[in-house]
Sequence to fold (732 residues):
Amino acid sequence: MANLAETQTTEGVPVANDDIPQAIRIAAERVSVFYGEKQALFDVDLDIASHSVTSLIGPSGCGKSTFLRCLNRMNDTIEGCRVAGNIKLDGVEILSDALDVVQLRARVGMVFQKPNPFPKSIADNITYAPRIHGLATTKADFDAIVERSLRRAGLWDEVKDRLDEPGTGLSGGQQQRLCIARAIAVQPEVILMDEPCSALDPIATARIEELIDELRQEYTIVIVTHSMQQAARVSQKTAFFHLGILVEEGETEQIFTAPRDERTQDYITGRFG
Amino acid sequence: MTFTLLTAVLLVLTMLSYRLGRQRVLASGSSVKDMHSLPSYYGAYVALWCGIPAFLMVFLWQVLEPQFLRSITLSGLGDTARALSETQLNLLLNDIRSLASGGILSREPDAAMTEAAERYSTWRNISTALWAVVAIAAAIGGLSYGRRLVNPTFRARPAVERVIKIVLIVASTIAILTTVGIVVSLLFEALRFFGKVPITEFLFGLQWSPQTALRADQVGSSGAFGAIPVFAGTFLITIIAMTVAVPIGLMSAIYMSEYASRRFRAIVKPILEILAGIPTVVYGFFAALTIAPFFRGLGESVGLGVASESALAAGVVMGIMIIPFVSSLSDDVINAVPQAMRDGSFALGATHSETIRQVIIPAALPGIVGSILLAVSRAIGETMIVVMAAGLAANLTANPLQAVTTVTVQIVTLLTGDQEFDSAKTLAAFALGLVLFVVTLGLNVIALRVVRKYREKYD
Fold:
């Protein structure tokens, strides 16, 4: 916690879309993904900056979700999926067999397209991961984690009186914030979000976008989105994928105002995709 | 005219009326496009008008004729018949009927009987002819009435559809009524039993020896109908069976749904389900000839006395039989847990076994409990394995190495062979059956409710 507080004071100043040089948290080199015989991703090189929001955009099936799932090795759970290349998290190779996936996923959290709270109580949803990783032992510690995570996800005031009720009973937007709270309960360094707002209404979406903007002060966030407005609103960096190839990446403002590649231009102006 | 011939005539008339109805609407001059319904509906409509009243008449005849003939025959017998008891009267009527058709009699026919037999056959011929005429008249009347209604604007289709709906309702009601009938017959026989043996003695008695003596001077002539040892045996064997089936079934379900590759699962799951298709008699051989001697030998080698028809052998084999019930249903409910739950858990850094224990099993628990309850009711009602492997001695014991008996075994032994249906011994089978039915019905209701509640959660 002390560590985090420090980070907040030194880097917590809202970072605008300017050119302040940022530390690189994740460095992907020549990443290719194969589903059986089919290649879904071709030699992607992408650096993800610390304490910022990077959005991955592109038409359906372009490989952006596949790339996202490489970052916490969720592709391991898919039968017949093979990943080649190098991905370094803080300089440590995460694609090697020697790496413990459990520890990696504790450092790289993930929020999914559809809110997926466990059919447990709200409190148990939050304490699930800390319990597994042995982050706390006493009830007081767990209570503190629940409160801190829910506050951080902006859900505390809405659910503090019904922490024992099932998480599945919340509204869609609340469920998604519960999933975010669940992800940050283990204090990860990176949070991956796979179209976190696509199942939500505009008000809930606005609430989540606000939250993402707050969270980037503490966490490195990578978000896949289909909404170009959302990418423009929440992210500092944007990467455009097309047919499994990383076409262009850069500052969000530059991508949306002066794209270098014609395909990016076509996509953001709505000519295809 | 015989019944078969009459039915054939009526069927021909019905087919004819279909053609007539169809022809009539086609002959009306308007094209098929302008008609309210397709021509075949008009045909079907007339056929229904022809067939339904006629077959109703035949049905009525079948129901009423015996009553009618009986009263006609009896009316000539006079006071002698009135003095007879119900059973004697039935016997007399049977003889008269045999006399009329030239069969074998139980006594020498006297003059009154010969006369009654003649009257019987005369009236039978008359009534048969009469009803045949009535049925054919109903068919022809219905045909001409239905045919008169047919014209291109007539709404034949809704009328036919309504009849189809009624037929479907009747079909489903038959299944329900049969169930009700089974329960009622069980109930009445059981009540007769409780008239002979008090219900408290049956439910709470600790002695089960249903053999009643044929002569008063034989040993054990009274019989004892305390059902507790029998039910205790059933529960002992069920518990042994579930101890085998639940862990193996559940673990194989977890392996198949969570760890096995899709190809392995596609091969192994049907193989496991073959276990459910093996006839229980074959399991019975297996229990009596392979497993029971094996346990006895095993017991001897460690100095334990194992009965050759031990509860253990029957229970273990029954457990093997039940494995597919547990594994197949549990596999389905575990698969029904959304992939999103697994992804959510993996993404938080949980291992596969942590995910299974803490997310998937709790989420699938109601369905798993439902599948186990269904398996339990299956085990309680299972008959053949225990008949062959569990024995007949009604020992009240919790020792699985001894021989016990079960409810189903007792029912089988009480009712096989020639039995008098008014002794307490035979009627006890119905009381046992009733209690067994209530227990399994209760378990099934609970299981189905639990499973349904679970289904609502993810759909």
